[in-house]
Specification:
CATH superfamily of the largest domain in chain B: FAD/NAD(P)-binding domain
Mean pLDDT of chain B: 96
Strand content of chain B: 5-15%
Radius of gyration of chain A: 21 Å
CATH superfamily of the largest domain in chain A: Alpha-helical ferredoxin
Radius of gyration of chain B: 24 Å
CATH topology of the largest domain in chain B: FAD/NAD(P)-binding domain
Helix content of chain A: 25-40%
Strand order of the largest sheet of chain B: 5-2-1-9-17
Low-confidence stretches of chain B: none
Strand content of chain A: 5-15%
Structural class of chain B: alpha+beta
Mean pLDDT of chain A: 97
CATH class of the largest domain in chain A: Mainly Alpha
Oligomer: heterodimer
Number of strands of chain A: 7
Number of domains of chain B: 3
Shape of chain A: elongated
Number of helices of chain A: 8
Largest sheet of chain B: 5 strands, parallel
């Protein structure tokens, strides 16, 4: 087995949304390179509980990079900087003995901190509720092969639909913009024929809710794309802007 | 205990249509006067909540995740079966029904399975209409693949993320209903008990996981869609939060728990790397289409590999044992999950495992790369090879993968009748949380099918039968003695967990419990081991209540407290699993009793004595639960010994 590591952690601790919060330092000793980053935190937490302290609260569930629960900024980068990798899939072999690792929550006005590294991302759900769907009732649908979908467009729709809604794009953006997230859903649904009837309504409603939630605007720095664990392309933001412009014109708003 | 399955009369293929006509309807104008609680927002829960709301019912939906989109259905990789016969290769509703009953080793309820096969075709239509980006052919029509050894191509898929795309489809329908105000969503909220009034389920008690607030919710009916209990083993492919609490607490209130010993061990997972391991990761079953499973023929060679003195490539072709191909020449590496897992265990028990712990075998793509070229292999499995490299640091194009079986799915669950109602009136159970469709072994790509069948196409009809018999104003005040009393029970349990103030963390108890269950009630079970486990688990439980350490308080976000409550339930439930495995003196599907095997070492059923559903009734704390039996009758499918030779 590879050599065990000793690390120093600087972790953001915050009791609740009203607390101002602070960094605290912990030692993480005998860390195996085969551990995932979250397993390393598990080890630290077991130690904290053992010494009568409260463990570091963080979200995680599937631990295989698909549920989008885990959400932490590691050494200044959302999810820790391994390309296309969530924090739960980041492994300790990418760190080295003696390192200091800083761990913070997503920071954005629209994502208030619940506790430590746990933030409130329900703003994303509210955006979806405004138009991130195709209005079909269960049962009232044609045969699945009645409407052919070109393979290229379906594949492109899938590229966008892969978004796991983790919020790293917001955390990485200096404007705390949610455009990559919203663009992924608007693009997915505007690329498939089933999504056409609501195309304009959807774009207008989702963008409005995004703005109402307090997310910032896009200045095309591309940091969202760089940290996205599903490597969702910045091109989708351009597509969303076209969808939005098209909707404004069609609805006669401009 | 009344275990009337309420299977409709008439020929198998007409039961569901006939039943749908016979079911009572709720007047459309009255639907808005009814409230239904749905606990869980995975495929079954989200589809049920959305569809009930579309029908006009008022729905409250609860999930412990921070968003309904994160339920663990999202992690399903491979696909979803449906009897569309789009490939013109001889599939039909009857064939899917037959395969599922046979695959379940003749321990599922025929009528339920037939209905599942029937509505499977509607699911694909529904999902396509929601915009789910299924894989397509160049002509624009849907693509299919053969999966899990099926003889027809009936599996629909969206890259390696089918569960994600189907869940996001259900989540989109749910989101629409939330936006319309028909569903009230409670994320980060955990159900801690079900409230019974005069024997009927009338509501639940929940904890807000951010504020710690305990609240009571009443309704006309309660639907549990809370998934399986695989995390009883501590290490499984389930998400960290998956738990048995909702179904187990319903069991303690009188709902029968059926077949808890039926667990599925998936053969291709990444082996455990050390004591820090928090969960296991599945590598899709599709890898067995091209990968070859092997270990060295000799134990001494295996030992050298374990010590790092030899590499896989140092082992000559003639010194390798491709044990699945050797033992099952017609199915080879594509034998069903239970058979593949058990043979891997045998190879490792024989001292021929190839990872440091001894618990791992090779899954080798060398031949596939020679035959197809690396780029073709990359095209088929690239995302899986990438994931493997992320976790293990090893490049599977150059070195064989190492794999080992892991707990993946649980076929057992709360007992339900044909209407998906438990023996507690008004308490419905859908998806993995119930027991009915997969018997003793689930086929690949059938979990997604069942979750969505229950939620979109079965429950929304059958729940009307119950609600039509309940007056809209027959709704219990949450200040009633029953609600208040149930909340007191919940609070007492939380206070108890916080007041032990011992030395051990919830995780340490969970890990120890998981090891006991894995050792004695895992891939192979025997009487001695199960009896030992039934003795050890109560001892561990006693220690839990004397030496548990939960820091913090109830009145804030406290992940240790959440976990402790779940572990407390697993500590009781684990014993029930072992009891069920002990009573079932036969081998079937995922349940392999070492005493009951054929001379070739295959599972040997005892249809004469064990062709029943084992449903357990709770009898009180530290009392032995009582076994009830629902006899299984096979009208359509002839029971045979499964053979994959």
């Amino acid at each position: 087995m590879d050599k065990l590591m000793n690390l120093k952690l600087k972790v953001w601790r915050q009791d609740d949304a009203d607390d101002v919060g602070r960094f605290e330092e912990y030692q993480a000793d005998d860390i195996s390179p085969d551990m995932s980053f979250l397993e390393m935190l598990d080890v630290v937490n077991e130690g904290l509980i053992g010494s009568g302290k409260e463990p570091i609260a963080f979200d995680s569930d599937c631990r295989e990079g698909i549920c989008g629960s885990c959400s932490m900024v590691i050494n200044g980068t959302a999810h820790g900087g391994q390309k296309g990798t969530t924090a739960c899939q980041l492994h300790m072999r990418h760190f080295s003995d003696g390192m200091t690792i800083t761990i913070e929550p997503w920071r954005a006005t629209a994502f208030p901190v619940h506790r430590d590294l746990v933030v409130d991302r329900t703003a994303f759900d509210r955006i979806q509720q405004k138009g991130g769907f195709i209005s079909v009732r269960t049962g009232s649908v044609p045969d699945a092969n009645a409407i052919p979908v070109s393979k290229d467009e379906s594949d492109l729709a899938m590229d966008a639909a892969q978004c796991i809604g983790c919020g790293a794009c917001v955390a990485a953006c200096k404007n705390a913009s949610a455009m990559l997230f919203v663009a992924a859903k608007i693009s997915h649904l505007s690329l498939v024929p089933q999504g056409q009837p609501e195309r304009e309504r959807r774009a207008l409603a989702m963008v409005k809710q995004m703005d109402d939630e307090g997310f910032g605007n896009c200045t095309v720095t591309g940091s969202c794309e760089a940290v996205c664990p599903k490597e969702i392309s910045l091109d989708f933001i351009a597509r969303m802007n076209r969808e939005y412009g098209r909707a404004l014109i069609k609805k006669g708003t401009i | 205990m009344n275990l009337d399955a309420k299977i409709p009369s008439g020929p198998m293929a007409q039961k569901w249509d006939k039943h749908r006509f016979d079911l009572k309807l709720v007047n459309p104008a009255n639907k808005r006067k009814y409230e239904v609680i749905v606990v869980g927002s995975g495929l079954a829960g989200a589809s049920a909540a959305a569809t009930l709301a579309e029908l006009g019912y008022n729905v409250k939906c609860f999930c412990f995740q921070d968003s309904p989109r994160r339920a663990h259905s999202i992690a399903a990789q491979g696909g979803i079966n449906a009897a569309k016969n789009y490939q013109n290769d001889g599939d039909s509703v009857h064939r899917l029904f037959y395969d599922t009953v046979k695959g379940g080793d003749y321990r599922s309820r025929e009528a339920n399975v037939h209905r599942l096969a029937q509505v499977s075709v509607n699911i694909i239509d529904q999902c396509a209409a929601q915009g789910v980006p299924f894989a397509r052919e160049y002509g624009g029509l849907l693509a299919n693949r053969s999966f899990g050894g099926a003889q027809v191509s009936r599996t629909f898929y969206a890259r390696g993320q089918t569960g994600q795309q189907l869940l996001l489809g259900a989540y989109s329908s749910l989101s629409r209903q939330i936006g319309l105000g028909k569903v009230q969503m409670f994320p980060r909220t955990e159900m801690l008990d079900v409230v019974l009034v005069d024997g009927h389920a009338k509501g639940i008690v929940v904890r807000d996981m951010v504020s710690g607030e305990i609240s009571r919710h009443s309704a006309h009916a309660v639907v549990l869609a809370t998934g399986g209990y695989g995390n009883a083993f501590f290490l499984s492919t389930n998400a960290m939060g998956c738990n048995v609490t909702a179904t187990f607490r319903a069991y303690k209130r009188g709902a029968a728990f059926a077949n808890p010993c039926y667990t599925q061990i998936h053969p291709t997972c990444i082996p455990v790397s050390g004591d820090h391991q928090s969960k296991l990761t599945l590598m899709s079953e599709s890898l067995r289409n091209d990968g070859r499973v092997w270990v060295p023929k000799s134990q001494s060679v295996a030992e050298k590999i374990r010590k790092g003195e030899l590499k896989a490539s140092d082992v000559a072709e003639g010194d390798r044992d491709y044990y699945l191909e050797r033992k099952y020449p017609s199915f080879g590496n594509l034998v069903p999950r239970d058979v593949a897992s058990r043979n891997t265990k045998e190879a490792c028990d024989d001292g021929r495992g190839v990872v440091g712990s001894g618990l791992g075998v090779y899954l080798d793509f060398e031949d596939a790369i020679k035959r197809l070229g690396e780029s073709a292999v990359r095209e088929r499995y690239g995302n899986l090879f990438d994931m493997y490299e992320k976790i293990t640091g090893s490049n599977a194009y150059q070195n064989p993968m190492t794999i080992f079986p892991a707990v993946h799915y649980t076929m057992g669950g709360l007992w339900v009748d044909y209407n998906l109602m438990s023996n507690v009136p008004g308490l419905y159970v859908v998806g993995e949380a119930n027991f009915s469709d997969h018997g003793a072994n689930r086929l690949g790509a059938s979990a997604l099918m069942q979750g969505l069948a229950d939620g979109y196409f079965v429950l929304p009809y059958t729940i009307g039968q119950y609600l039509a018999g309940v007056a809209p104003d027959d709704r219990t005040d949450t200040n009633s003695a029953e609600f208040v009393g149930t909340e007191e029970t919940v609070r007492a349990q939380i206070d108890k967990l916080l007041s032990v103030k011992g030395k051990r963390t919830p995780t340490s108890f969970h890990r120890e419990l998981g090891q006991i269950i894995w050792d004695e009630c895992g891939m192979a079970r025997n009487k001695t081991g199960l009896e030992a486990a039934i003795k050890k688990i109560p001892e561990l439980r006693a220690e839990f209540w004397e030496n548990l350490n939960v820091p913090g308080e109830n009145g804030s976000l406290n992940q240790s407290l959440e976990q402790a409550g779940r572990v407390a339930d697993f500590l009781e439930f684990g014993e029930l699993m072992c009891r069920d495995a002990l009573q079932r003196e036969e081998s079937c599907g995922g349940h392999f009793r070492e005493e009951h095997q054929t001379p070739e070492g295959e599972a040997k059923r005892d249809d004469k004595n064990f062709s029943f559903v084992g449903a357990w009734e709770y009898k009180g704390e530290n009392q032995t639960p009582e076994l009830h039996k629902e006899n299984l009758v096979y009208e359509e499918v002839k029971m045979t010994q499964r053979s994959y030779k």
